Amino acid sequence: MKPAAAAALLCLLVPSACNQASNDRLASPVTIVGDAVPAPLEGRQGDAQRGQQVFTSRDSGHCLLCHQLASLDAEFQGNVGPPLTGIGDRLDAGQIRYRIIDAQTIWPDTVMPSYYRTDGLRQVGEAYKGAPALNAQEVEDLVAFLETQTD
Ligand code: HEC
Q1: Which residues, if any, are the signal sequence (predicted)?
Q2: Protein residue whose Cα sits closest to atom 36 of ligand 1
C-alpha cells in the first residue's frame, strides 16, 4: 500500500491518529474536528483590521493573488480561487482557520499554499523552509477579518 493510502485508511480507522499525522506538519499542535480547527492557534485573539493587512499584503498572505473580495477597493484581484465575498456566512471561524493553515490536507491537489505548515510546502524558497508562511497571530488576524465578510 502506498503511504498516502495507508494514511487515509488510518484516518478512517483511528481519527485521533490521523489528527496527529496532520499535526506533525503544522507549526503548533491543533485539534481538527470534522473540517474545522475550532480553537484559535496558540490561544491568540485575532484582530480584523490587521487581518485585512495580511490579506492584501504582498509580503505576507497575498491572498488577493488568487481571491476576490468585494469589500476591498484593490486594483488587482485574482480569480484562481473562489471569491471570498460573503465567506463569513458560508464558513465558521474554525472552518476558515483550517482552510488557511492546511489547504493541502483538505484539497490534496490545490494550488493554495498551506500557510501554517512547516514541511511539504510547495514552491517555497530555501530560506523559508522550517518556518510557516504565516505565524499564529497572522492566521488569527485573517480569521477575524474573514469572519466579518458577510453579505
Ligand atoms: C495560489 C492561489 C491561492 C492563494 C495565494 C490563496 N488561495 Fe485560498 N484558495 C485557492 C483555491 C484554488 C481554493 C479552492 C480550493 C480548491 O479546490 O483548490 C481556495 C480556497 C480558499 C478558501 C475556501 C473558500 C470556500 O468558499 O470554501 C478560503 C477561506 C481561502 N481559500 C482563504 C485564503 C486566504 C485567507 C489566503 C491568504 C492567506 C488564500 N486563500 C490564498 C487558491 C489560493
Answers
A1: 1-21
A2: 63
* Ligand 1 atom closest to residue 78's alpha carbon, by position in its atom list: 2
Per DSSP, the three-state class of 117 is strand
What distance in angstroms lies between residue 100's CA and the mean position of ligand 1's atoms? 7
Instruction: List, for residues 64-80, the tens digit of each pLDDT value.
Output: 999 999 999 888 899 99
Q: Are 135 and 46 in contact (CB under 8 A)?
A: no
Has residue 45 got a pLDDT over 90?
A: yes
Q: Which domains does the chain have, with CATH numbers?
A: 34-147 (1.10.760.10)
* DSSP, res 83: P
d(CA 17, CA 9): 11
CA-proximal residue: ligand 1, atom 39 (nearest) = 63
- CA 60 from chain centre, in angstroms, equals 13
Cell of 69: 473580495
Q: What are phi and psi of 72, to 5 degrees?
A: -95, 140
Q: Check: CB of residue 101 under 8 Å from CB of residue 115.
A: yes
| Ligand 1 touching residue 111 (CB < 6 A) | yes
Q: Contact 87/146 with Cβ under 8 angstroms?
A: yes
